[in-house]
Amino acid sequence: xxxxxxxxxxxxxxxxxxxxxxxxxxxxxxxxxxxxxxxxxxxxxxxxxxxxxxxxxxxxxxxxxxxxxxxxxxxxxxxxxxxxxxxxxxxxxxxxxxxxxxxxxxxxxxxxxxxxxxxxxxxxxxxxxxxxxxxxxxxxxxxxxxxxxxxxxxxxxxxxxxxxxxxxxxxxxxxxxxxxxxxxxxxxxxxxxxxxxxxxxxxxxxxxxxxxxxxxxxxxxxxxxxxxxxxxxxxxxxxxxxxxxxxxxxxxxxxxxxxxxxxxxxxxxxxxxxxxxxxxxxxxxxxxxxxxxxxxxxxxxxxxxxxxxxxxxxxxxxxxxxxxxxxxxxxxxxxxxxxxxxx
Length: 343
Hints:
It is a multi-pass membrane protein. It is found in: Cell membrane. InterPro entries: Cyt-d_oxidase_su2. By secondary structure, this protein is mainly alpha-helical. The protein has a single domain (3-342), classed as Formate dehydrogenase/DMSO reductase domain (Formate dehydrogenase/DMSO reductase fold, Up-down Bundle), CATH 1.20.1630. The protein has 14 helices and two strands, in the order αααααααααααββααα. It has a two-stranded antiparallel ribbon. The model has no long low-confidence stretch (mean pLDDT 91).
């Protein structure tokens, strides 16, 4: 297989990894007003992702760098056309990161609540806008013969884009609630189980609509991997239902694993529906960016492949080691004891 096609799938896997890992970070942040009944419980929730949130975000940096190196034409059209949406995502991520670091610097309740709001907004906006962005890439956007985006931010806020955006927001939120239930105890854990049950129905409805709508788009383009789109959509649906059942019987590890599987196959459904395009043109299909006309030279892709073979396993080992070190539950008693020692 041509290396350009290999890198199309590698970039897809990197985005899958990012959405799975930073996805539950977003979900934890969005859950703060619903599960954080007092400052101790809010600290308990935030501390579940405290050691790993910044490590999870590196996946999007790696994915963006690989996209730039492997598909420069795609990168140029994407970032010039989607720059406002991507800027909002960037600012939201900055606000969220700053809030994690500064929230505990003062004892003022007003100070903490201000940063808590920034955490919620900084989690919800990327969860929504990443879905909008990916949906528009799959559906197609106005691109001229010079491969330049001719639309605006409002062009991206179309029905399919917004539907998929709400879907990713709900999936990430549910995924984060599962993580909170897995990593906490006491009232926070009980409230997380209840919140997950309330989120289940709207998440299933929007996810089912996304799978069907994406299939219709892929079928309309006669996508060569339509069978894979169907298979991944079905697996995503089954994984989502399995996570709901696991949460109902309070099997938190299984619920989180099934939630992760849901996101993996949901993103693959969208990615495979795109193949062999990387950015279809809604102006004229002949103006579309494809894997072949948007890729770098074989020499560049060869160097990238060797770099990935050497360094990617090291990154995975380091991240796995980090999760193993911080695998224990964040208990309320531990937070209270730390607060008592601080005073």
